Amino acid sequence: MTAFDELMTFQRETQALAQVAGRLGWDQETMMPRGAAPQRGEEMAAMEAVLHARRSDPRVAEWLAAAAPADEVGQAQLREIKRGYDRAVKVPADLAKTLARVTSEAQGKWADARANEDVAAFVPVLEEVVALKRQEGQALAEGGDVYDAMIQDYEPGTTAAEISAIFDAMRPELVDLRAAVLDQPAPKGLDGRFDAGKQMQLAQTLAEAFGYTMAHGRLDKAVHPFSSGSGLDVRITTRTSETDPFNCFYSTIHEVGHACYEQNIARDYLLTPLGNGVSMGVHESQSRIYENQLGRSRAFTGWLYGQMRDVFGDFGVPDAEAFYAAVNSVHNGYIRTEADELQYNLHVMLRFDLERDLMSGALDVRDLEEAWNARFASDFGYAVDKPSNGCLQDVHWSVGLFGYFPTYSLGNVYAGCLYEALRAAVPDLDTQLAQGDTSAATTWLGDNLQQHGALRTPLATIEHACGHAPNHSALISYLKTKFADLYDL
């Protein structure tokens, strides 16, 4: 075997173990008995110790130095392996293991604190997570910016300054458009209660309508919806609310976007560094375009209206056009995952600024709730009513995902560019969506982006699909056109 062959064999085993660790995380959120949390923390720590040892194994450096890839794919494999190795050797093994244990336990404590509206109960473990993540960030940064180092785990090649520039350009346009929309009468919402079992039935129909392959996946419920896995085993979760079925349906479509990206990556890349989505920003571009540009379109909601009438009967919305307005209603709300397209990015910008301050030390964990509430009131014009609608609503910080939040808005920016290119490539898109047929759209995304996995860097992945470098203007143009039409601006 050549050095390249030996490296790839070793890497496939590492990737397989990482998938097992991911399955432990999926089980913790869906099936695990609540009392098992301390033991699961130890199990996760043990798996992380094994994975860290493999990822930082000195032989990887030797193989990288000796490997001679034969083509573009081989070069990309080495690029991704080297990036992972360079990161792994900077983080002490004991720190990696401790982080895995603490964040596993913190996830359960966050869920309990959220259920009990008890920030004080969560503060001690979040302080521990933040302290450990600062240590990790300092090790990775090697004297540079800690938060920039953390972003590399989710959006390689991007800096906080670059993200800030995008957000600064977007914010005033979003705020002005929101003000204009909120001056108009709000559309009528849904009436009645919606059986959770029937919601899950229709959620599965939606998942399959967007191309999710149930033979290689499953749909379950969790406190915070997520997608897990890659290749031949990609699982999704959603959640239900008896008064708000849109929460279930659009969470499902969102996670299906993530899952289809993973399911559609070329099988040749299975259990290799190229066999995953290249970044969370690119991943979010798939979940957001599925959920919003396709799933909330006038054409598709017309079909969904009929499906909901079949399942739930009369729910107080007279016709498909009124249903389209209800799906896209711009309204006051606290929850990021339930936010309308227009205000969603403002929720992300709030978190981006707060987590940067947490990592820099400018914000103490004990002051987080007060800082969150003050910023929310400033940005949205009304007060947070309870912690589960404020700083306890997201799972991310409990599990140590600092640097993740800005990728949600980067994904929206990328999705805007992809949608522009998709509409040019599929002129009769609306006709197909009106029949509940997403295949032309999802095939285009599969061919132009998803199948390539991590072959290219994040920006190059989007540029390859769109034909140009990404920028935020396509997203802003899409939002202005859509909401001007909806609200007669």
UniProtKB/TrEMBL annotation:
Signal sequence annotation: none
UniProt EC number: 3.4.17.19
Positions of Zn(2+) binding: H254, H258, E284
Top-level EC class: hydrolase
Known catalytic reactions: Release of a C-terminal amino acid with broad specificity, except for -Pro
Pfam (any one): Peptidase_M32
InterPro entries: Peptidase_M32_Taq
Keywords in alphabetical order: Carboxypeptidase, Hydrolase, Metal-binding, Metalloprotease, Protease, Zinc
Single GO term (MF): metal ion binding
Alphabetical list of Gene3D superfamilies matching this protein: 1.10.1370.30
GO process annotations (BP): proteolysis
Names of the cofactor(s): Zn(2+)
Active site: E255
Described function: Broad specificity carboxypetidase that releases amino acids sequentially from the C-terminus, including neutral, aromatic, polar and basic residues.
Name of protein: Metal-dependent carboxypeptidase
Organism (species): Tritonibacter litoralis
